[in-house]
Amino acid sequence: MAGGQGSRLRPYTDDRPKPMVEIPGTGLPIIGHQLAWLAAEGVTDVVVSCGHLAGVLQEWLAGAVLPLRVTTVVEEEPLGRGGGLKYAARHLPHPDRAWYAANGDVWTRFPLREMAAFHAERAAVATLALARPRIPWGVVETNEFGQVLDFVEAPPSPYPVNAGVYVFAPEFAALLPDLGDHERTTFPRLARERRLAGFPLPQGAYWRAIDTAKDLAEAARELAAQGAV
Fold this sequence. Notes:
- By secondary structure, the chain is α/β, with parallel strands linked by helices.
- The chain has a single domain (18-131, 160-227), classed as Spore Coat Polysaccharide Biosynthesis Protein SpsA, Chain A (Alpha-Beta Complex), CATH 3.90.550.10.
- Helices cover 28% and strands 23% of the residues.
- The protein contains seven helices and ten strands.
- It has a four-stranded mixed sheet with strand order 3-8-5-9. Strands 1-2 form a two-stranded parallel ribbon. It has a two-stranded antiparallel sheet with strand order 4-10.
- The mean pLDDT is 85.
C-alpha cells in the first residue's frame, strides 16, 4: 500500500511518494528494501497500490532489477486505506489463496512464513503483525508506596501496536469497504467475531515505521549499528 501523501515526511515527499524515500546510507528507497525482504521470504508476486506521485514509483520499478514480479495499480481518486486495499486485491494473481499485505512506509525483517502458519492455525480471516516500539521518552519505575526505583530510557511499549504487515484469507477482500478505512470498519467487525488474530513479532525482529525525518535518521543509525548498512 503506497498511495499516501506522506505529509509528515516533507520535504522528502514533495517530489516522491513515501515508499520512494531513501534511508540514508543504504542506496535504496524504502520499497526496495521491502521487495528484497518479501522475495527472501518466498513471495513471488507483488501488487503495489499507488496514488500520490505514482509516476515516480512506477518509473523506479520499471528501471530497477527486481527479485520478484511487480504490478502497479493507481487510484484515480483517493479511496481510503480500505478502498485502496480492495482495489489492489482485484489484481492479485491468485485470488483464491491467502495473501500478505504491507504498508509502504514500514521497514522490517521477520519470518513471514511463521506469521502465515500462525494465521492458518487460528483459522483467522485476517492476521496483523504486532510490534512493541520503543517509547520515545524515559520512564520512571515506582513501587506501591510511590517511591522511585529506577529511570529507564526509551523502554519498549507495554502495549503492542499494529505493525502494518498482514496475512489475509481469500474471503477478506470481499469484506473491505469500497471507500474508507478498513481499520475503522472491517477490523473492528472481525475482532468482535473473534476472526482477527495478532501475531507478535519475534524477539529481536527489526521493525520501524518511517513517518518523519527523525525516523529516517534513527533507522540509518540503527542499521549501521547492526552492520546492515
